[in-house]
Design goal:
single chain, 5 helices
Length: 134
């Protein structure tokens, strides 16, 4: 498979950005060992944010490659290539930001990013699926 220059640059940037997920793992390890105080709610949201980031980055890279096999152009191609990858930033950010703050036991208004990430995820997947089925 040969990637277009745009897809190749995007994949390279995403792989470099994926290094940040490892720092999230270090944060979770410190939290689990008691080095960072957190409520049960915060622990669950931080784990969810970290897990979604890792899975969606890998899934997004697969979608990026699959988009190269479509005849999509313009905005549709952009969404098929990057919708899942953008959701890999937006959704985990929602989990982390919604749980920030000493002693928090409920999500704050940043939870809207989780929903926005879900919309981006669905839009990217549907666009890519249509492009593959055309």
């Amino acid at each position: 498979m040969i990637l277009s220059p745009d897809a190749q640059v995007t994949a390279g940037i995403v792989l470099l950005a994926a290094v940040t997920v490892t720092s999230g793992g270090a944060f979770l390890a410190r939290m689990a060992s008691g080095g960072i105080p957190a409520t049960d709610f915060q622990r669950s949201f931080f784990r969810a944010g970290h897990g979604h980031a890792g899975v969606l980055i890998v899934f997004g890279l697969v979608c990026l490659m699959l988009a190269e096999a479509t005849t999509l152009t313009g905005v549709a191609l952009w969404l098929a290539r990057t919708g899942v990858l953008i959701s890999a930033i937006v959704m985990p950010a929602g989990f982390f930001f919604a749980a920030m703050g000493r002693g928090r036991t409920r999500p704050n208004r940043w939870i809207v990013l989780v929903v926005a990430g879900g919309v981006l995820l669905a839009a990217g997947l549907v666009t890519l699926a249509v492009g593959l089925l055309m």
